[in-house]
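User: Can you recover a sequence for this backbone? Please restate the input before giving your answer.

Assistant: Of course. Working from this structure:
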């Protein structure tokens, strides 16, 4: 998912404000002890999410896909005073680690965790969200988008990660894998939805940022 030359990536990292120490620690522990650590947002994307959230100033945020909690903590930094990020993950084995770093970062009042199937949890939520961040199983990206759309306020944002899928979205293949097809379907869905304006940002593995117009 790294598309730029290593030297340029390093230059970009060196000219982006560093992540807080607690996130550095979480980053290290994720890479040392958790399978597929590349799923973690990391320094550059994390700071981008924090900056984006600070600009949007959301009160209520929904995150679909917590993993080890790195992106949730980045988003929490940019919330309005009294704001909450509701983050859902199906993997209960990571919950203790997530809660440990929520506490260590001092974000207990900002981050609310949910464990289970997001497709079952989201319909039970009665919040109006200012921002939604989708970073979970790719096969359900379109389902998540459809499910959250009416829960997002006018002018709110739906952001999806991994929309370049390591470049597979432009590879010529007679039989693309199911995840690639799902990501491509999601990108086409957002691009052709007149209810939003959108931009695909080529940061890390790609972020599709959609702003609800109606």
């Amino acid at each position: 998912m790294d598309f730029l030359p290593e030297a340029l990536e390093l230059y970009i990292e060196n000219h982006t404000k560093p992540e807080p120490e607690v996130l550095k620690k979480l980053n290290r522990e994720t890479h040392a002890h958790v399978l597929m650590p590349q799923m973690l947002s990391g320094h550059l994307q994390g700071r981008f999410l924090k900056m984006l959230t600070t600009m949007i100033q959301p009160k209520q945020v929904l995150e679909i896909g917590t993993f080890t909690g790195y992106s949730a903590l980045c988003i929490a930094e940019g919330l309005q005073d009294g704001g909450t990020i509701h983050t859902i993950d199906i993997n209960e084995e990571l919950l203790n680690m997530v809660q440990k770093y929520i506490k260590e970062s001092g974000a207990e009042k900002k981050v609310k965790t949910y464990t289970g199937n997001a497709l079952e949890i989201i319909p039970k939520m009665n919040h109006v969200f200012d921002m939604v961040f989708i970073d979970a199983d790719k096969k359900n990206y379109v389902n998540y988008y459809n499910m959250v759309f009416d829960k997002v306020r006018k002018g709110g944002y739906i952001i999806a990660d991994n929309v370049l899928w390591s470049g597979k979205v432009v590879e010529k293949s007679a039989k693309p894998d199911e995840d690639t097809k799902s990501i491509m379907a999601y990108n086409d869905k957002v691009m052709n939805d007149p209810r939003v304006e959108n931009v695909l940002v080529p940061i890390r593995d790609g972020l599709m940022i959609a702003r609800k117009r109606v």
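That completes the design. DSSP finds eight helices and seven strands in the chain.
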